[in-house]
């Protein structure tokens, strides 16, 4: 199974990781390709300002990313909705997005950052949390996708 | 049904019971039976689908008063 993770919202990230971990537990080879806002899910929470030149630096400052900064796509409500969502998940003993990422890694899910987005935003391998694969391009993704029976775009 | 191991998934939502089942079944020997306790109704559809995908045998699902018990015989290689 291959999944393009384009979105960087908490709920969409959860959906992607729920499908990925379930696929892995069903014995599927799972590759997740993170592009555009999806890369924010993989960024370190404590990332410093990076990139070359003013524009990239501004982007890294305004679009810091990291799992702690992910918002809900609906009901964010200046953070109140997202905070409530996290509480509801905790009350239900549901894994956090960080736990899902760790679980996915342990189950052999490959998480790949998109090279174009990394290039444009001035991101390198050190921008991402541990467990993330090397940066790769669309051809690598399609190489995997053409062999997989399920491809999703989230 | 007599089980060789039990996995308690009460209060856990999809896909956690399935993910935990996949981890737990590794500890069992071929032919042994795993009992999964859950209250997420999705498991009634999910467990047979998971068994079919992984080559295990779903022996049956019992439900009483919101408590669901799923039985899986390890037959996967």
Description:
The complex is a heterodimer of chains A (about 150) and B (about 80). By secondary structure, chain A is of the alpha/beta class. Chain A has helices at about 10-25, 40, 55-60, 80-90, 95-105, 115-120, 140-145; strands at about 1-5, 30-35, 110-115, 150-154. Chain A has one domain: 3-Layer(aba) Sandwich (Hypothetical Protein Ychn, Chain: A). Chain A has a four-stranded parallel beta sheet, sandwiched between helices. In chain A, strand 1, helix 1 (about 10-25) and strand 2 (about 30-35) form a beta-alpha-beta unit. The two termini of chain A are about 15 Å apart. The mean pLDDT of chain A is about 95. Chain B has a single domain (about 5-75), classed as Translation Initiation Factor IF3 (2-Layer Sandwich), CATH 3.30.110.40. Chain B has helices spanning about 15-25, 45-55, and strands at about 5-10, 35-40, 55-65, 65-75. Chain B has a four-stranded mixed beta sheet, covered by helices on one side. In chain B, strand 1, helix 1 (about 15-25) and strand 2 (about 35-40) form a beta-alpha-beta unit. Chain B is globular. The chains are: A alpha/beta (about 150), B alpha+beta (about 80). Chains A and B meet through helix 1 of A and helix 1 and helix 2 of B.
